[in-house]
Structures are given as C-alpha cells and as structure tokens.
Amino acid sequence: MSLHIVGVRHHSPACARQVAAAIEAIRPAWVLIEGPADMNDRIGELLLDHEPPIAIFTHYATPSGPSWCFSPFMACSPEWVALQRGAASGAQLRFIDLPAWDKALLGVRNRFRDGAERYATRIEALCQAVGVDDMDALWEHLFEGELPLPELEAALSAYFVELRGEVDGGPRDGPREQYMRDWIAWALGQGGPVLAVVGGWHAPALRGVLPAICEPPPIPPPTGEGSSHLVPWSQPRLDSFSGYEAGMPSPGFQEDLFNLGGEAAVDRALNQVVAALRQSRVRVSVADHIAARSAILSLARLRGHSPPRRLDLLDGAVLALHKEPLPEALPWSRRGRIDSALPPVVATLLSTLTGDRSGRLAASTPRPPLVQDVELQLRAAGLFIPRPLTHRSAERKEVALDWRQPDDRPALRLLHRLRVLGIPGFERRSGPKAGTDAAMREAWRLSWSIEQEAALIEASRWGATLLGAVSHKLSRAVVEARGLGALSAALVEAIWVGLRALAEEVLPQLLRSVHDSPQLAELGSAVAPLYGLWRAGDLVEAEGSPLLQPLLREAGERALTLMATVVGDTLPPEDMVALITLRPLFREGARLDLPPERVIPVLDRRSTDRAAPPMLRGAALGLSWSLDRAVEIEVAIEGARVAASEGQIGDFLAGLFAMARGPALRDPGLISAVDTVVGALTDEAFLAMVPSLRLAFSYFPPAEREQLAEHLRASWGWTAARDWWDAPAEALVEGLSLDARVEAWGQSLGLWEADDGS
After folding, report:
1. Dihedral, CA atoms, 85, 88, 89, 92, nearest 10 degrees?
2. Whole-model pTM?
C-alpha cells in the first residue's frame, strides 16, 4: 500500500502532464480526485464520448432560493486527465470532495477557484524575487516550460508547500480536507497504490494519512432538493480574463500547449492571430509575420524560456504587429476580468488564444427533466429546431404569432417562458410592449444555439418543468424585488407567460408599494405596462379588469396625492413624463372607479396654485382639459400671464401642451392669447425663455405646427404672398442668416446644444 499526492493547479497543462506520468508510473488501484462526491455513483457518465470543455453542474435548494456550483474540465485539466487515464489503466475512480450543498461550500459558484487571497503575500514576494508581474506570469515562468517530469514534481511540491505555509484549513477548507483524508484512508484500507489528485493548496494537508478499514465516507445529503448533471461549457467561460476565478488565462492556447507542446503551440497561435487580423482587414504583411516570430523567440531567449511561453507570444506579437502607442498597460500584465475596450491587435490576440470552442456531451448523457420537457413542448408546438450536423447547416425559423389569435397564444406563452429563463436561440424580433399597442403581432427568430443545451441544463436549478422553472424564477424575483419597478416587472412577466396565480399573489404587495410610492416618476414607469395589459386583458388572458383594476385605481389615487404635494419652481422632466403616462388612468376614471369628483378638485387647485411649479400648473390644467371638461379659456390665458411674469411661460405651456395638445390646437383664442403674452416680452426676457418655449412647442408634430403657423399668419394679417415659397430669395437668405446668428448666440450662452443633424 502506498499513497501518492499530486498537488495541481487546476487546468494547468504542466500539471496534467504530471498526472498522466504519475498514473503511468504508479499504476494505481485507486485514483482519487478533488470533485463532488455526490457524482461517484454516476462517475461513468464522465467517461462517455464527450468533447471537453464540460462541467459538473450542481444545483440545490437553500432557504434563500436556488444556488448552484460548477466543476469545469478542459482537456488539459489535471482532473480530467486523471479520470480518463485512470479509467484506461483499470483504476477505481472516486471524487473525494464535499458536495456543493455542504455548508463548507455554500455560496461557492466555482469549486476550483484559486482563492488567491489566501496566499497573496507569498505570491507577491515570489513575483518580486523572480521579476514578473503576477501569479500567471510566475506560474508560466516556473512550470509551463516542459521541465523533465522528476524536476517538475519536485518544483510543484516545493511551490505548494511554500504557498500553504503553516496556515490551517479554516472553516471552509478544513471540513473539505478532513473529508478528503477520510476518503484517502478508506482507499488505502482497500489495498493497492492510491493516487490523489487535488488542488495544490490542499496537498500539504493530506500527506501522511494512514489506512483505515471502514466504510467509504457518507455523502452528506442536501437539506432540500439537490442534483448534479453534466453540462457543456466553452473556452471563453474558462478564461480568467472573462472573470473565471480558477481559470488559466487563454484556455485555447493551454489546450494546444498540452496537446502539441510549447513551440508548436506558439507557432499555431501566431498563425491563427495573423489569419484573424487579415480577415478583420488589419494589414499584416509577410514581413510583419516574420518580425513577430523573431520578436517572440528573442523575448523567450532574453527571459530564459525554452520553448517560448504564452507571455512571450503575446508581448512579441504586440511588439511587431501593433504600430501605434498603447493607451494603457497590456491586459495580461495583471490578473482579472477585462472590461475596457482594447486595440484591434490586442483584442484579436486575446480572443484567438482564448479560443471559441464549446464542449459537447455524448448523446447518451442523462439530461435533467427540464431539457426533455422543453423539447416535448417545442415539438408539440412545431417550434423545435434540431441540432445541426455542422454550424453551416444550422436551421433558422422565422415565426409570426398574434395574441389576437387564440390558437397562437399557447406558442407565445411557451416562447415567453423560454425568454424569461434566458435560453439562447429564441429571439423576439418585434412585438408589443404593452396591451395598448395597435399591433399585437410578435415576430420570433428560432435557431439552434451551441449554448442552448447548457442554458437549459443550468436553468433546471429553477425546476424540473418549464412552467415550474419559470414560476420559481419569477417567484424569487418577487421575493428579491426592491422597489415598485421590480415588482411591476415581475407581475407583467407573470401575465405574459400565463401565470395568473402568481400574478394574484404579487398583487397585494404591489398595491402596498403603489400606495407608498414617494415619486411620480417611479409610479409612472411602473404603471405604464400594467395599464397596457389591463386594456388587453382578454388577449393575454389576464382578465384585465378584475385582476388589475384595484391596482390602477390605487395608482391614480397615489398620483393625485403626489401632485397635490409638489412645490417649487421646477418639475423634474421624469415627473412630467410620468404624468403623461398616468393621464390614461384619469381618462378611464369611470371604469377604474376613479370618479371625476375625486380628480377635478385636485387639478383645479394645482392649476392656479402659485406654490406649484409652472409646468405642473400647466399639466394640471391640460389634464383637466383633456378629460373633456369645459375649461374657461380665461383660466388658461391667466395662467400663461402669471407664468410669463415669473419668467417661466415656456414651462407652463410645456405642461399644458403635453397633456392637452389637441384641445389647445383647436382653440384659436388660446393661441392668440399666448402670442399676445409672448409678444409683450422684452427681447432679453424672450431670449431667456426660448429653450423652454422650444420644449413646449416640440409636443406638436410638424403638421400641427403648420396649423399653428397658419393661425398666427392669419391673425397677423399676412397674405398668401407672404408665404415662404413666394418670398424673394434675398429675404430667405436674410432669414436663414438671422437663424444662424440666433443659434450661435444661444449656443454661446449655453441655452441649447449644437444640432449635429443626428
């Protein structure tokens, strides 16, 4: 009996070579691997004809909702090599780490994360001693250079002992390491050599375990539902530059490094980069290609690297191919996610070395029930897109469905449920935003997507059926909702996907949020889609009035309360937008049990209240006018005079026209009165009010502006001969010149921004 501990860095080609060599030399009876022990009775699934990268996806229930964890494998992952080479050698395979639902791993989304904060000080000291920037550069310099295997084994062992030091496992790693020791002791008790492949941080804590004759360690059960499944992954998801915590940077290159060796991997990568740059129309000559290769080899010799490393490739290629100054430090000079835009050469280098390949599961791999449920429903609805033989043969299907057609509604609900779960390949190209849209027709593009299967498997954390998963996800959205907008969005989604019961559950909470809403803007944005669905309740089978009527009535009441309390000189633009949004509630007052005797007194008080912002005064008057109520034109004229005396006639008119553009246009007396008030302004006062006046009249579309101009032309006594198309060319030139001077003057004073013509 003998124990061999191989400490590894996850996804490292050098460590994968070391594991393969250890299995060949030791011929172990047992290969124990850091991984979720709940998969041990299904470990054969990992030996099917998969194409990595793939991952073990574990989902489980917690009191705060579903949680999940990934254990990914690349072709060059030491754990993957241990599985494949161990099985080929006839060894027994076991995962020896706690399940993801154990409290030691709760909240961990990636089992193989580095946890570099534990040894940051030691890494920093080593980087300074070696003269490199970060942990990735240090690792490549020390280990990814095809060292002889005995030297590699000794160097890795010393490195991980240095990282670990005298630190204990703590509350997170301590229970995991004890569980691993229990598995090792059990395997040693079964007889034969034992090889344990674990993260290098854990390796020093697992040495010296003695055999024990006992039962294998029990699998801690989940407190609720919990399960693991295999899921396809992709090279971009494995890249540390994309934020993957345990990733080796440039996973595509790492796999080539494992399969081809260092020099061949560098040559292949450089050729791919040059081809990609040329395809994207970046000029790369043969001389540039030669210069890049020379720079890579020169840097490698200077740094003592044979063969060249990944950083030699990146630095040398940028040196030869990027012809302009770099705006900032190169992204591979530090570890972590890249969020900023990159120069084309740098971006192409990184994306090429990352790779774009996605994994594939063997056809016989068990899938979770959700995948089967979705496929059955798509087939029944005639919407299923089969997996193509090649990407070039991928089928696309354009689908048009209409909510006004009862036979289309089940398919629409199915597609919206997939949209809510975020499943790729189901793209809503167009469709109504609310039930008030003139057209209730939706256009969808359906296609097979390489990420589709993975997304469905990962969505199984929400439930075993499509309806259950969507219901669970939206229920969590309700529980986690912070604010009226999030609750409203959840209710709207529940109605679109046909979850009437969930919508009814949300309603009381939403009613309370509407009642307590402190802002008109928040109220307006949340209520707008609900009003649309109320109007189209029969189409989306929400039975609009009984479900949403109390909510909309409460929104109208709250809007009146908020309108009654606004004071000051200005009304925020978002509040004005909200009032326009909420106007239909008052127009539907009879159906919503919001009677005029409740609405009109508030509007009358506010329209003449000089403590209210002028824009709100105009909006209150305009809203009253738009409710088909006879409004004395003298009230509007007096409001305009008062606002003009305050220097804010533009704000008053903006509120008035925004709410009652039609009635205002139909009353020539108001337009004439406004013309009189504006005409009485001094030049200085008029110019100061130009921006707000422009806003006010922007509510009229061009055709209606022409009507206003015709009315004013007639009131000024202009004849048709004064129309612009009959005006002399000199007058037109003089007018255009005056417009240009006014525009430039306004810009110089900051009254408006330059018109760029967009």
Report:
1. 90
2. 0.78
